[in-house]
Design brief:
Helices cover about 70% and strands about 0% of the residues. α2 packs across α13, α4 crosses α7 and α10 runs antiparallel to α13. With about 300 residues, the chain is mainly α. It has a single domain, classed as MetI-like fold, CATH 1.10.3720.10.
């Protein structure tokens, strides 16, 4: 009888990564799902044995009837969708622009766009805090008042006359500068891997820069576009660090400036309702899985996985 198949070398190379995923993602996910069915509050672990659907019923009721939570849902949808478009399309446009530049000229611009990503979260958020500061000392207010565009300083992220669009614009702007650099790096490296002969041949055939980008370059980086899109989608659903600081410092309205991930964090650590926060986090994970699979389907990921046919 043939012996049992032995694991190949690939298994041993993947084992450390699989162990990390198991310990730092699968196990916490299972615990979060379990805690979501418990009335855990103030870290009272004795209540972990009481299982029910109360947290999910309460969450459903609040989404339907609590105006503040409905604002959080709307903000999450707008923030995620608009920032995703900015990050992917902006990163692609920047990468194409850098590709058509000389290497020595594009290098300073690439480094400049990396600054928001390299800057610590607190420092980066503090810069935006001073930029949108409500008083006359705020950078944006001082600029607009010196130009005569406004007569008095505005609280851009909290002014009732400007909400919710001003808060959404700040969220997209702050997170867009960080996310667009990621797409630029991935797309630029992918474009530089395309054989130079293809670009030269297209130029000889009379292709313009737009035609070259549309018909030669972009089709060859489809894998990278799918990767950046799905990665950024899942990242934006769970990001809250910059948002948390800007809300706590008073730059953004607490309801219109908070997304679902921040709502989960505040519920767990500020109101100390860990069971309810775990239920909300479980919903966020489920939404992320559905949207991730939907994005892969819409971008025809399955067709890209088909093995190419060999030459006859």
């Amino acid at each position: 009888m043939p012996g049992r198949p032995r694991p190949g070398p690939a298994f041993f190379f993947l084992l450390p990564a699989l162990a990390l995923i198991l310990v730092f993602y699968v196990v916490p996910l299972i615990l979060s799902v379990y805690i979501g069915f418990t009335p855990l509050r103030d870290w009272n672990l004795q209540r972990l044995g009481e299982l029910s659907l109360d947290n999910y019923r309460r969450l459903y009721h609040l989404v339907l009837h609590d105006p503040d939570l409905r604002k959080v849902v709307q903000t999450t949808i707008v923030f995620t969708s608009v920032t995703l478009a900015v990050n992917v399309l902006g990163g692609l446009v920047l990468a194409l622009a850098m590709f058509f530049m000389d290497e020595w000229l594009s290098l300073p611009y690439r480094l400049l766009w990396l600054l928001p990503r390299m800057t610590p979260v607190a420092v980066y958020s503090l810069l935006w805090y001073y930029f949108f500061l409500p008083g006359r000392e705020g950078i944006l207010n001082s600029w607009l008042m010196s130009l005569g565009l406004i007569d008095e300083p505005r609280a851009w992220g909290k002014d009732p006359e400007l909400l919710p669009y001003s808060a959404w614009a700040i969220l997209v702007l702050v997170n867009g500068f960080v996310g667009v650099s990621f797409g630029m790096i991935v797309f630029y490296s992918a474009l530089k891997s395309i054989p130079r002969e293809q670009v030269i041949a297209a130029r000889i055939d009379g292709a313009s820069t737009l035609q070259l980008a549309r018909h030669v370059l972009i089709p060859q980086i489809r894998w990278h576009i799918v990767y950046v899109t799905v990665w950024q989608l899942l990242s934006l659903l769970t990001t809250f660090a910059h948002i948390f600081l800007l809300v706590e410092w008073g730059t953004l309205d607490r309801a219109w400036g908070s997304n679902w991930a921040l709502y989960v964090f505040n519920t767990a650590f500020l109101t100390q309702d860990q069971g309810f926060a775990a239920a909300a986090a479980t919903v966020l994970v489920a939404v992320g899985v559905v949207l991730g699979l939907l994005a892969l389907r819409l971008m025809r990921f399955r067709e890209m996985m088909v093995e190419p046919k060999g030459e006859l």
